[in-house]
Automatic annotation (TrEMBL):
<keyword id="KW-0812">Transmembrane</keyword>
<dbReference type="InterPro" id="IPR003740">
    <property type="entry name" value="YitT"/>
</dbReference>
<dbReference type="InterPro" id="IPR051461">
    <property type="entry name" value="UPF0750_membrane"/>
</dbReference>
<feature type="transmembrane region" description="Helical">
    <location>
        <begin position="42"/>
        <end position="63"/>
    </location>
</feature>
<dbReference type="Pfam" id="PF02588">
    <property type="entry name" value="YitT_membrane"/>
</dbReference>
<keyword id="KW-0472">Membrane</keyword>
<feature type="transmembrane region" description="Helical">
    <location>
        <begin position="109"/>
        <end position="127"/>
    </location>
</feature>
<feature type="transmembrane region" description="Helical">
    <location>
        <begin position="16"/>
        <end position="36"/>
    </location>
</feature>
<keyword id="KW-1003">Cell membrane</keyword>
<protein>
    <submittedName>
        <fullName>YitT family protein</fullName>
    </submittedName>
</protein>
<feature type="transmembrane region" description="Helical">
    <location>
        <begin position="175"/>
        <end position="192"/>
    </location>
</feature>
<keyword id="KW-1133">Transmembrane helix</keyword>
<feature type="transmembrane region" description="Helical">
    <location>
        <begin position="75"/>
        <end position="97"/>
    </location>
</feature>
């Protein structure tokens, strides 16, 4: 397939960013409804939110601010601007949704599977339109470039620390269900994301 046929236009990117941000926001609503945690910068933001009572949206927006310069250096202006827009849109939607979306009783297994699928779908859409929702992967790439230490290991270590910290705020069973959701999310990405075609 030629490069011309694999590129997205402005309207394609707009709907991709909107879809990814909205579905990710629904995933965040489900996650916080269940008291679950997750990895990456979203996981850091949700732990801060649980610990302080601050809203996830503003915390997530602020947590991501330091990573935009790294994103610009590593992936360029287009990636950085799209990622900023996606994070800002998600942060806004998460502030609006609670008055318009309510969950009832959900079995933790179903919630974990649904959370992984929703968030994986959202991230795939964002990746395929040259955007991202978190900066830890970018940090991992910088460390890899500088030292040779694999970026994937950096992300894994960060996530392991997050889940360990989550045990201070959540019970073991909740953290275990959260871990299952994270596994499903990563499987969705690993199986469906074409790194040779898309940027992130």
């Amino acid at each position: 397939m030629s490069e011309k046929n694999t590129r997205h236009g402005m309207i394609d990117d707009a709907q991709g960013l909107a879809y990814g941000s909205f579905v990710a926001a629904v995933g965040v609503m489900l996650m916080t409804h269940m008291g679950f945690v997750t990895g990456q910068t979203a996981g850091l933001a949700v732990l801060i939110s649980y610990a302080t009572g601050w809203g996830f949206g503003p915390v997530f927006f602020v947590v991501n601010l330091p990573f935009y310069w790294l994103g610009y250096r590593r992936f360029g202006l287009g990636f950085t601007l799209k990622s900023f827009l996606a994070v800002a849109l998600l942060s806004l939607i998460v502030q609006i949704l609670p008055s318009r979306l309510h969950f009832g009783e959900i079995h933790p297994l179903v919630a974990a599977l649904l959370l992984g699928c929703l968030t994986g779908s959202a991230l795939l859409a964002l990746f395929r339109h040259g955007a991202s929702l978190g900066g830890i992967g970018i940090v991992g790439l910088y460390i890899q470039d500088a030292t040779g230490f694999r970026a994937g290991w950096t992300q894994l270590i960060f996530d392991a620390c997050l889940f360990a910290a989550a045990l201070l705020l959540r019970d073991v069973e909740t953290v275990a269900w959260s871990f299952l959701g994270a596994v499903v999310l990563n499987l969705v990405i690993a199986i469906n994301h074409r790194r040779d075609r898309y940027i992130a």
